[in-house]
Amino acid sequence: MAKTAVKEKPVKVRKKYRFFKPREKKLNRSVAGNGLLFFIMAICGFFMALPLVMIINNCLKPLDEIYQYPPRILVRNPTLENFTDLFTIMNDSWVPFSRYILNTIIITGLGTVGHVILASLAAYPLAKHEFPGKKLLFNMVVLSMMFSWTVTQIPNYMIISWLGINNTYLALILPACAYGMGLYLMKQFMEQLPTSLMESARLDGASEYQVFWKIVMPNVKPAWLTLAIFQFQQMWGNTGSMFLRDEQLKPLQFALQQISAGGTARAGAAAAVTFIIAAVPIIFFLACQSNVLETMTTSGMKD
Amino acid sequence: MASTEALTVAKKQSKLSYQIKKNKACYIMLAPYFILFFLFTVLPVLASIALSFTYFNMLEFPTFNGWNNYIKLFLEDDIFLVSLKNTLIFAVVTGPISYLLCLLFAWIINEFSSKLRTLLTLIFYAPSICGNAYMVWSLILSSDRYGYLNGILIKLGIINEQKLWMQDAKYILPCLIVVQLWLSLGTGFLSFIAGLQTVDKSLYEAAALDGVKNRWQELWYVTLPAMKPQLMFGAVMQITQSFAVADISIQLAGNPSVNYAGATVVTHLLDYGSTRFDMGYASAIATVLFLLMVGTNKLVQKLLGRVGE
Question: Which of A218, B128, B227, B300 has the least C-beta neighbours within 10 A?
Answer without folding.
Answer: A218
